[in-house]
Write a structure and sequence with these properties.
The protein has 286 residues and is mainly β. The protein is globular and about 55 Å long. The protein is 0% helix and 41% strand. The protein starts with 6 loop residues before the first strand and ends in a 23-residue tail after the last strand.
């Protein structure tokens, strides 16, 4: 993967924007120290998209498009109106050098035996490291707050739509820091923005890597805010919501009424060294 890439949405094999509703813009997030909050400002035309294979567009990309095949960017439907790219279009070998990280699809490659966690009351896991199976019950929130050590989780099971995974202490990640998470499986192979709750932080403050191989879907009506990588699986974005941040996957299909917005301050990245010290599970949460 190219460090510092501004191509927020990348599908290795192909990238599809399936309907005229799936326009892509970008935002430059700014932090207000007085209110300790983030603001997006006005939409900007720096949404970068890329694929090794074809890019099929029925919507407008307010930014640049890069494909390694020629012709690589296909505007659908043929005729007027059709998909469009406001910035530069590059088609053919050499148009980009992005690639997905090579990561094992097995949690056990990184972790030994650890305890399972059932979230029956709001809980904070203040230390990263290995966690096996996490079950979040309805109307309960699990906060991941460690901004130094990544979290390695085998399974996350949202027991209902009001079960929440949130980031930072009480949902706040300090400016200039980020929470990094690796997960092998999310029950049902899908997630909605009500379950993945990151409304108080900028998208680039959460980097979430799904290492599983099953096709993964974002759906629902609540907004998402994160940089999401699926190095071993295809991803579908479907529903009626806004996705803020970036997504890299083996293939990426954006449909329904979903709109995507690139966070210009963020990049999709992964650790080059997956080794870390494992702490006792009893010391990890309160």
């Amino acid at each position: 993967m190219v460090s510092g890439s501004k191509e927020a949405f990348y599908g290795r094999d192909q990238l599809n924007f399936d309907t005229p509703n799936n326009d892509c813009y970008s935002y430059s997030y700014e932090f207000d120290a007085g209110t300790s909050s983030w603001s997006r400002g006005a939409p900007r035309a720096n949404c970068g998209i890329a694929a090794d294979g074809p890019i099929n567009l029925k919507s407008k990309i307010n930014g640049n498009a890069n494909s390694l095949v020629n012709p690589g960017v296909v505007y659908l439907p043929l005729g007027n109106p059709s998909g469009d790219v406001s910035g530069d279009v590059c088609e053919g070998p050499g148009c980009h050098s992005y690639s997905l990280p090579v990561i094992s699809n097995s949690w056990s490659s990184f972790c030994g035996t650890t305890n399972d966690i059932a979230v029956s009351a709001d809980m904070t896991l203040g230390s990263g490291g290995c966690y096996r199976d996490i079950e979040i019950n309805n109307n309960r929130t699990l906060y991941l707050s460690d901004t130094t050590t990544p979290y390695y989780i085998r399974t996350v099971d949202f027991r209902a739509n009001n079960a929440h995974l949130s980031f930072g202490t009480n949902g706040v990640v300090p400016q200039g820091e980020k929470v990094t998470v690796y997960v092998q499986e999310i029950a049902g192979d899908h997630m909605n923005g009500n379950q993945f709750y990151n409304a108080g932080n900028a998208p680039h403050q959460v980097e979430f890597t799904y290492i599983g191989t099953s096709p993964f879907t974002f759906n629902g009506t609540a907004d998402f805010n994160a940089f999401f990588t699926a190095p071993n699986a295809p991803v579908t974005v479907n529903g009626n919501f806004n996705y803020y941040g970036g997504i890299w996957a083996t293939s990426l299909d954006i449909g329904g009424s979903a709109r995507v917005w690139a966070d210009e301050a963020g990049t999709v990245s992964v650790l080059s060294d997956m080794n870390f010290s494992i702490k006792k599970a009893s010391q990890r949460y309160r």
